[in-house]
Amino acid sequence: MAEPFPSPTGAAPTRAAVFTDYLAYFRGGVAERVRSLPPPASRVSRLPSGWTPIELVKHLTYVERRWLEWGFEGLDVGDPWGDRRDGRWHVDDDEDDEAVLGALAHQGTRTTSIIASHDLDEVGRPSERWGGEAPPTLERVLFHLLQEYARHLGHLDVVAEIVGGSVGE
Fold first, then answer.
1. Which domain holds residue 70?
2. What is the rounded CA–CA span in Å between residue 52 and residue 3?
3. Bridge-partner residues for 84, per DSSP?
4. Which residues contact 99 (CB under 8 A, 6 or more apart)?
5. CB within 10 Å: which end of the chain, N or C, has fewer?
6. CA–CA distance, 104 with 98 (Å, rounded to integer)
7. How many domains does the chain have?
């Protein structure tokens, strides 16, 4: 079931809930678009840049991990760039689409937990993620994630429209 659009006029209990709700909405939209594609469209690129819809899903999973777990919390996440191979997004042939989508959902649960356990004004831990710069606040990281999701969901809408999948709100 798709997440409802978090109306800007609807009441939200906290500022953190606004971020959580929008991220869940965008994340759900990505999963819905990919699941709506006729087989094997999730693994075929329709654009000159060469990415496939399932590669985009894996990329977004790693984006959340990189920004929140590795960056903001300063945790060791193994290979924070595991969504890439040879300078581009990559999904192995033996990675099932539902497993990749499940990893996105799991990361969403982890993200929600991180948001709930920190104040939006809290500054992230110094880590390699920030390239020597001062870490940003959680709120700033979440703004970045929202723009990343919104932009990529728009990209995915174009691809879904081309191949006959679901689009839009």
1. 15-163
2. 24
3. 89
4. none
5. N
6. 10
7. 1
Stated length of the chain: 169
- Sign of the Cα torsion 140, 158, 156, 32 reads positive
Identify any residues that bridge with 85 across adjacent strands, giving them in sequence order. 88
Round to whole Å and give the CA distance between 161 and 169.
Answer: 13
84-85 vs 88-89, strand pairing mode: antiparallel
User: What's 112's domain CATH number?
Assistant: 1.20.120.450
Poorest-confidence range of 22-31, 104-113, 123-132, 146-155? 123-132
Q: What is the rounded CA–CA span in Å between residue 65 and residue 61?
A: 6
DSSP 89: E
Degrees to nearest 5, angle at CA 26 with 42 and 143: 125
> Which segment of 5-14, 50-59, 134-143 scores lowest on mean pLDDT?
5-14
Please tell me the number of Cα atoms within 13 Å of 53 on its side-chain side.
Answer: 32
